[in-house]
Amino acid sequence: MAFGYVVANVNVTDPVQYEEYKKFSSIAMQKYGAEVLVRGGKTELMEGNLHSRVIILKFPSFDDAVTFHHSAEYQLAKSKRDGAAQMNMIVAEGI
User: Is the predicted pLDDT of residue 1 greater than 90, yes or no?
Assistant: First the structure.
């Protein structure tokens, strides 16, 4: 069975405001069945360019991960992040 993974790479520029994003994104993650595999923590750049914060979420399917991202709940969280961080995010199918 294939799962859906959201992989995000973040540069937090306003940690206080980013906490609001985390609060609302956690609500969306819970609603759409995300399992948190990585959320912050220690990183070490081995090659290329990378922001300092990495997030990896596992969803029951690729479609569930896409639905999470487009949901009203996550869009609200995303609006709380405006001006607080730069983010690169992908959805990938995996095992």
Answer: no
